[in-house]
Amino acid sequence: MKPFPGTIGGFARAATLWMLTLGSVAAARQDVAPAPATEAPKAGRAGADGKNAKTKTKTKTKGRRDRPGYYMGRPIADVMSWRGAEWLFRETRIDEEQPEAMLDALEIAPGSTVADVGAGAGYHSIRLARRVGPKGTVLAADVQPEMLQLLRANARTAGVENIKPLLATQRDTKLPDGKVDLILMVDVYHECSDPDVLLAGLLKALKPGGRLVLVEFRGEDPEVPIKPEHKMTLKQVRLELEPQGFRFQKSLEFLPWQHVIVFEKPKPDEKPATPDTAAP
Ligand SMILES: C[S@@+](CC[C@H](N)C(=O)[O-])C[C@H]1O[C@@H](n2cnc3c(N)ncnc32)[C@H](O)[C@@H]1O
Predict the structure, then answer these.
(1) Whose CA is nearest to atom 12 of ligand 1?
(2) What is the per-residue DSSP string for 24-66?
(3) What spacing in Å lies between the alpha carbon of 79 and ligand 1's midpoint?
(4) 3 state DSSP class of 84
(5) Cβ(242) – ligand 1 distance below 6 Å
(6) Beta-strand (E) ranges in 61-172?
(7) Nearest CA to 114 among 197, 190, 175?
(8) Of the chain's two ends, which shows fewer C-beta atoms within 10 Å, N or C?
C-alpha cells in the first residue's frame, strides 16, 4: 500500500515553512535528528525511533501507590516531542507497522465517528478520514498544539476535510460523551501520565459497544528495536484497562512489531470486566 500521494512531501514542506518562521533551517534539522540510541542497533532501525526528542511529563500519583513516574508497576514514558514528528512519517513505517492492514483488521464502518487519541501529525487520522468517508468524522486529539498544527497542514495536503483536531490535556481528551464508535491510540498509551483519569474519560466518550484499540510495540519481544518504556506487554495492558471497565475483546498479532489490542465498552445490560477476570 502506498503512502498518501503528496502527503509526506506536504508534511515536509509544511514543517519546513513552519520551522523557518521559528528559527533557522539548521536549527530545525537539529531538532528532528535522532540522538544516539541507548540500545544496540538492530538491522539499521534502532536509534531511529525518533523518541529521543522528549517533552517532559509531569506525573500525578496522588491516591496511587506507585512511585512517581510509574503506573501499576510500569514506568511511564516521556511524551514524544513534535520536534521528532518527521519520524512518524518515515518511509519504512509502511513495512514496519502496515497501517492499512492494521486499519483493515478493525473493519471501520463508513459514516462512523472515530477518535485518534495521541494523533500526532495525523499519520492515522488521514487514513481514518478516508475510511469513514464524508459522512463520518475523525476526532484527532493531541496534547501538543504543534502536532495539531502539523496535522492540519497534512490533512489539507491530503485533501481530507472530516478531521476535527482537539487540543487535549493529559487528563482530558476533550472528546464528547457517548458519541464515539472507536478510539484508536497508536503508540500513545504508554506516554499517558494519568492513565486512570484518561481511561475513565475514554470510557465515557464511547458509545455502548464502542471499541478502544491500543497499538503498542510488544514488550514481550526484546528484538523489537524500541526502548523498553515505549513498549507494553499484553498482560500489563489488560491489567491496567480491565479494572477501568473495558472488556478485552481480542489481541491481533499479525504486525511485525506491535500488538493491536481491542477492548469494548460493555452495553448497559452486559457485565464489565472486573479485576478478577483481568489478565491471566
Ligand atoms: C509516538 S506519538 C504517536 C503519534 C500517532 N499516533 C502516530 O502513530 O503517528 C505519541 C503522541 O501522543 C501524544 N500524547 C501523549 N499523551 C497524550 C494524551 N494523554 N492525550 C493525547 N495525546 C497524547 C503526544 O503528544 C504524541 O503526539
Answers:
(1) 118
(2) -HHHHHHHHSPPPPSS---TTTTT-SSTTSEEPPP---TT--S
(3) 7
(4) helix
(5) no
(6) 70-71, 74-75, 79-80, 113-117, 137-142, 163-167
(7) 175
(8) C
Q: Where are the beta strands (DSSP E) in 221-269?
A: 231-232, 247-252, 258-264
Cα–ligand 1 centroid distance for 188 (angstroms) = 5
pLDDT above 50 (res 9): no
Structure confidence by residue, pLDDT tens digits, 229-259: 999 999 999 999 999 999 999 999 999 999 9
Is residue 93 helix, strand or coil?
A: helix
- Taking the C-alpha atoms of residue 247 and residue 158, their distance in angstroms, rounded to an integer, is 35
Largest interatomic CA distance in the chain: 59
Tell me the mean pLDDT in the region 251-271: 94
Query: Which has more confidence, 46 or 178?
Result: 178
Q: Which of 137-141, 151-155, 182-186, 274-278 has the lowest mean pLDDT?
A: 274-278
Neighbours of 12 (CB within 10 A): 12
Provide the grid cell at 178: 457517548
7-277 carries CATH number 3.40.50.150: yes
Dist CA 182 CA 252 (whole Å): 16
Give the CA dihedral 53, 145, 75, 255, nearest 10 degrees: -80
* 6 within 8 A of 158, measured Cβ to Cβ: yes
178-212 pLDDT tens trace:
999 999 999 999 999 999 999 999 999 999 999 99
Question: Looking at ligand 1, which atom is closest to the CA of residue 184?
Answer: 6
- Which cell numbers hold the place of 130? 478516508
